[in-house]
């Protein structure tokens, strides 16, 4: 009885709550959903029907095929995959090692280095590209995959902070016990701490991975030979040229590039949220 | 102690990185002295060095031809030179991206020389192809990329600057005579709007690069003066100011301004579609577009009505006479850092493209070899005097480029200034006179910066 | 791993070395230097060296290619006197207003979602997903969305608003910047929201019950319990959003390419650097913006300290 009463009292508030949530979800999803419906329409439908009508057949993959071929997406996905693997392995190792040293060893300059990375995070990447380009040119890193990978390795501050947070919560007694057992500091890091870092590694890898996969500006600037070095984001951009506003193809391209992200998101929601939450409760 | 070690390491890194940046571009610049084995003028395509082995890469602005015509050219050329492999790379935003890539030195073997390169800088990036004397009598426009009488680029083709239009639409609107001044032109556009469903003038705003076409009309076409662009424009005061007889640059840009302001262009320029416009004009949904003669074959190929597409001079008359400027399109340049074999192969290919491929004719342009037949689309220009810009005098080769760039108006290379006309005409926040005043001010200060006193 | 093992073996065979290696301090120095080398090298190479070079370039009149000329402070004078730079900075105000809306929405959704409504996971995912989408894709999605007669117009059409009454969203200079700001909110709101959800999760739950007994409603609960507890993170995000507003790039770059008065500071800088080849001027613009961002961040640091001490004193007072 009482339960029901409370329920009734709460009802209008509940309705309001869900109305807000539904409206929010609607706004968030409509732009994407309209792309999906358009991508399945054939030429005739695209020209004659309104954006809001559903496609005749959800099995019309013609646009996806055209988009895939025109934008050379096969190669783009292969390149992006190669880049992702290298960048993720590299940046995870680099950031974890750095965070380990900064967290475990108190030396003069420790604070300075932390601040150097802090300030670096404030400098928007695009601002310095004019000069980074010159450096890349001199080092012969322009127009090579490894050059771009090298560059992407060097700009990760978020991962370092996630690892620093995580090390805070790993007791130092772990290290000390291992050292007493005759383990070296290298051993402590690689054998004891790195395996314990797994949740942090997953989170930082997802965030870094999504960032790398989506990165356009530098990929466009440094991977110049689009015949060879097309990546997913730059291949998507090719639609501005030859396909102008044939949105049935563009939408298909957009959906194709979104699928990997969607899959990662659906499977790793927890890690993403917990990683973000870790950032939220810092201090 | 540790602090000092850290400081040392940091300092070491900085110097290592800094010295790395001080060293010169080593990978390819050692080839700068390598010369092609045969001089361009002596090359006999099909006979010279047919066993030559080389891999060539070509940067082109013609993204539309990379998978079609260019592939045919390659296989034709390979019939004579089976050991030369050629790959094309198309770049959409050509001038900007190609300039960025030039600076890295490692971009390929042949490219269309971007308009941003100063003439005096040509030799740093491109191999000399010959002396002006070698080409003067045989090639058109050989002076386009020239410094100290040394030629660094062979034009891909020549363009005539006019207006591509749909004859059927014009007829339907009752236009019997082609307009020869801006006022009549605008009146005709209005007729098209009233009597047909077509968009009278399509701006192609969104594509960006298409807008720079407008800059090609301001010199020869709008003045009838071959000295205007490279000699007068750089020296005169307020070149963008309005002339009472509606000639000169102002008349050209004002035509665009008025057309947009009077609603004679597409409703929403931000969503124009370059590829789509070809079918639209072909099918009679667009009246006309202001583009160089290179656009004609593309519009003809855009749909079933190739015969409806025609080309007319820009509607400006100087003392009752119409002119049209004829000028070189992009020029092929050969990378100065390529090897001797690559340079030879590159020049052979360029020579073949220029003299034997028929590229200019199929693309609706003026052939580079003097005496070759003009394409049919240029027939309406027979009564028109074609004006080719004279080159700048010695010592002033770079002046136009420098003033043009410093003023940020960037005629021919960047479309922002033309886009701003369309934006102002729609927004109503600036008149064409005010825009011209702004440009004149920018032009004047750029002239002063480069030591020119405007007259 | 192997390296460590190798070192120990070598160390065992040679006494002197073993002595040295087992010396914890020496080991520490070696580990520190090896582990620091790569990240610091990359940091110096791709962040600080370019930064110093950029400062240097900002005193020159130069193109990417060709000769350069020292011009002193002229580029800086230009940055401060040019109308377009100033207008571009003014555009940041739109995005600042937008970021306030964005944070408010994020707080609203975060608060609702923190009390586990049915389907909360779906809503959280739907609202967060846009922030994972590639910027270029976002550009296309919204170009399509705003094109006359397409998505947005159709939706409004369903609501009974005729198409000819609707403006051209990207062309009309009275609204196009707001339209772009809306896309920006769409893209980044989810990120703030998830952060806030994380922060709210750490709020002591017993406070809600106590408040409920006192008859507090949802607004009271938000205003007097949640907001004070997550104040630091809200302020932090606020300031991040402000410096983010100064450096907006991708959204206008892809959707309008800076046309019709939507050219933000970075879009303008990119154009000057690449289309106009004014590398010196673009560098000066970048330096000016960095100084602005550093100033904002300094304010943030101060605010954080103030807040911290504020919270501490208020807690102390509460205890009394």
Automatic annotation (TrEMBL), chain A:
Location within or outside the cell: Cell membrane
Domain ABC transmembrane type-1 residue range list: 77-268
Cellular component annotations (GO), alphabetically ordered: plasma membrane
SUPFAM superfamilies associated with the record: MetI-like
Membrane topology label: Multi-pass membrane protein
Transmembrane parts of this sequence: 20-40, 81-103, 115-139, 145-164, 185-207, 247-268
Location, primary (coarse class): membrane
GO biological process: transmembrane transport
Alphabetical keyword list: Cell membrane, Membrane, Transmembrane, Transmembrane helix, Transport
Cited PROSITE patterns: ABC_TM1
Similarity comment: family membership: Belongs to the binding-protein-dependent transport system permease family.
Name of the molecule in the record: ABC transporter, permease protein
Species of origin: Ruminococcus callidus ATCC 27760
From TrEMBL, chain C:
Membrane topology: Multi-pass membrane protein
One BP term from GO: transmembrane transport
Keywords: Cell membrane, Membrane, Transmembrane, Transmembrane helix, Transport
A Pfam family: BPD_transp_1
Domain ABC transmembrane type-1 residues, every copy: 88-300
UniProt-listed CDD domains: TM_PBP2
A single Gene Ontology CC term: plasma membrane
UniProt keyword Transport, yes or no: yes
Compartments where found: Cell membrane
PROSITE patterns the record matches: ABC_TM1
Sequence intervals crossing the membrane: 29-51, 93-115, 127-146, 224-245, 280-299
Annotated InterPro entries: ABC_transporter_permease (IPR051393), MetI-like (IPR000515), MetI-like_sf (IPR035906)
Statement: the UniProt record of this protein carries the keyword Protein biosynthesis: no
Family note: Belongs to the binding-protein-dependent transport system permease family.
Protein name: ABC transporter, permease protein
Organism: Ruminococcus callidus ATCC 27760
